[in-house]
# Entry
Amino acid sequence: MPSAVSEIPAAEPELAAAHHAAKLAFETDCSDVRAASAAGKVDFVLLDVRSPALFAQSHVPGAINLPHGKMTAHRMSEWARDTLFVVYCAGPHCNGADKAAFRLAKLGLKAKLMIGGMTGWADEGFAFESEAVAAE
# Structure
C-alpha cells in the first residue's frame, strides 16, 4: 500500500514545470526581494499595503506605503505602465496584498505578491526600517 505522499502520482515533469512557472508569475519571496535589493538590482516597486500607522512602526527596507484602497488609476499613473509592483502586507493571515495585486491587475498593471509579508521577512531574520514617510 502506497504512502499518503505517493498515493496520488506526481505530475509529469513538463506539467510540473508549467505549473510552477505559472505560480512564480504571481509571487516572489522575501529572500528574492532582499537579494535583489542587496545586489542593487531592484527592477520593481515594493509596496507595503498596510496602514500608514503600521508602516511607520516597521516596514521592509525600500518599501513605499500605499494601501490598496488608495491604488487608483490617477495615483498609479506616476509609474510607467510596464512597472512591476511587488506587494506585501502583514503575513499569511492577511489578504491585503492579494487585494492590492487584484486592484493593480484591474488597472492593467503587473504585480507579484511577496509571500510571507512582514511575518516571512521576520522569519528570515531580515531587518526592518521604521523611518520613512507614507505615500499620500
User: Anything to note?
Assistant: Residues 26 and 112 are 5 Å apart (CA to CA). The chain has a mean pLDDT of 94.
